[in-house]
TrEMBL record:
Its EC number is 2.7.7.9. It comes from Kuraishia capsulata CBS 1993. This is UTP--glucose-1-phosphate uridylyltransferase. Plays a central role as a glucosyl donor in cellular metabolic pathways. Keywords: Nucleotidyltransferase, Transferase.
Length: 499
């Protein structure tokens, strides 16, 4: 089911017939392959769970085939900016009532690995500040909340099969803390051969590489199937605050919680103003009278530059979401949440061969259109502080921020937004980053930093204004201890003292 009203390309009857036949054959072959895997599972309880998961995957796969064959595209002329009641400003929200915290649970999306930053295991265990990981900081925040307001906000972690074992081991250290931590796994779906559209795994026991976690849109189904949703409802919880595990700005905000309860909204998406670094971020639109999330992948090529325009689409989705738990249960049981499918192409190694595969993924933000009273709240930029790269890591480790009860706060003496930092490939992995920048430079007065090549920073370095350091291949630049670089370009193989 496509999110948008169809705008069909002209096709001949024979073309439709061919596509329908191809879709039917591919669906039949996939169903047979899945049934064979299910039949091979001996343990009844394991088989029942696996069968349910494969049935859900097959429904997604069949919908992907149907959408692909239909030739539907978004009608750009039907898009307009959201109405005033569909996107509201955080500054207009009323003061919070702390009593509402008893209705809240927090969920962190914890399915990702730290491989893109050169780390092994869950990304949530990477050290980000003062020896503490993403997970440590999340626990400290909620523990402080529970202690300060004498409440009981639980923390849920949605793991993937890639992160579950390590996470289960790590959460043991929080026993005795004033926080209840619950974990559950999102689905495990088979990767698909791009050419044949058949599943890569031959059995449930096949290697991890044959499977994938299907994106955070899987949260609704997994909450229900794991039993965690019913547990929360039995505890009197009404609202779930969902955010990416690596967004250090995603703390519990009682004002947004209070606003959600007062308005009766079933879904609130936090948006923040775009900068030129965020032009690809998804944004809320009104499409034929309904609020929707528009992602860049859905935009026709001829309108991509318009989509990136900060003037037309002023804010973007932070993936900080507030969702009504009863609404989730109602919609999942009615099989009513059908969001856009994101075909993600990957290359994996099978034997000695590189194989092109597909992963059919979904995003939790796209579900906004299914919830009553859903709308966006434009929040301060401080609520969006993701750490996707070592450039982001440098920012959150710097003197620009300080820790307060597990939350990062920007130094009040900083004027304007955070600086733009671009570190080159030598700094891509955390190990390389740490060896080249063993001591964080002071960047309180920095506007822009670009560093490429074999560059190493000494102790007590200060960066101000715009600093560009470019080291040529085969050369080296060492920034001496105590250097102050202000509005400077450093290139070649020269000592800073020569500039």
């Amino acid at each position: 089911m496509s999110q948008y009203s169809p705008k069909k390309h002209a096709k001949s009857q024979s073309s439709y017939a061919f596509e329908n036949t191809t879709t039917t054959v591919a669906a039949s072959q996939m169903r047979n392959a899945l049934n064979k895997m299910i039949d091979d599972v001996a343990e009844p309880e394991v088989r029942a769970k696996f069968e349910t998961e494969m049935d859900t995957f097959f429904a997604l796969f069949r919908r992907y085939l149907t959408d692909k064959a239909s030739g539907t595209t978004l009608d750009w002329d039907h898009i307009r900016s959201p109405d005033h009641d569909e996107v509201v400003d955080y500054q207009t929200l009323q003061d919070a009532n702390a009593a509402n915290l008893s209705k809240l649970a927090v969920l962190k999306l914890n399915g990702g690995l730290g491989t893109s930053m050169g780390c092994v295991g869950p990304k949530s265990v990477i050290e980000v500040r003062d020896g503490q990981s993403f997970l440590d900081l999340s626990v400290r925040q909620i523990e402080y909340l529970n202690r300060t307001f004498d409440t009981d906000v639980p923390l849920l972690l949605m793991n993937s099969f890639n992160t579950d074992d390590d996470t289960q081991h790590l959460v043991k250290k929080y026993q005795g803390h004033r926080i209840r931590i619950r974990t559950f796994n999102q689905s495990r779906y088979p990767r698909i051969y791009k050419d044949s559209l058949l599943p890569v795994p031959q059995s449930l026991e096949d290697d991890h590489d044959a499977w994938y976690p299907p994106g955070h849109g899987d949260i609704f189904e997994s909450l229900v199937s794991s039993g965690e949703l019913d547990v929360l409802l039995e505890q009197g919880k009404e609202i779930l605050f969902v955010s990416n595990g690596d967004n250090l700005g995603a703390t519990v905000d009682p004002k947004i919680l209070n606003h959600m309860i007062e308005t009766g909204a079933e879904y609130i998406m936090e948006l923040t103003d775009k900068t030129r670094a965020d032009v690809k971020g998804g944004t809320l639109i009104n499409y034929d009278g309904t609020i929707r999330l528009l992602e860049i992948a859905q935009v026709p090529k001829e309108h991509v530059e318009e989509f990136k325009s900060i003037k037309k689409f002023k804010n973007f989705n932070t993936n900080n979401l507030w969702i009504n738990l009863k609404a989730i249960k109602r919609l999942v049981e009615a099989n009513a949440i059908q969001v856009e499918i994101i075909p993600n192409q990957k290359s994996i190694t099978v034997g000695n061969m590189d194989i092109n595969v597909l992963q059919l993924e979904t995003a939790v933000g796209a579900a906004i259109r299914h919830f009553n009273g859903a709308h966006g709240v434009v929040v301060p930029r401080s609520r969006f502080l993701p750490v996707k790269t070592c450039s982001d890591l440098m920012l959150v480790k710097s003197d620009l921020f300080y820790l307060q009860h597990g939350a990062l706060k920007m130094d009040p003496s900083r004027f304007g937004a955070a600086p733009l930092i671009k570190l080159g490939s030598d700094f891509k992995k955390v190990s390389g980053f740490q060896s080249r920048i063993p001591h964080m430079p002071k960047i309180l007065e920095l506007d822009h930093l670009t560093v490429t090549g074999n560059v190493n920073f000494g102790k007590g370095v200060q960066l101000r204004g715009t600093v560009i350091i470019v080291c040529n291949d085969g050369q080296k630049i060492d920034i001496p201890n105590g250097s102050i670089l202000e509005n400077v370009v450093v290139t070649g193989n020269l000592s800073i003292l020569e500039h």
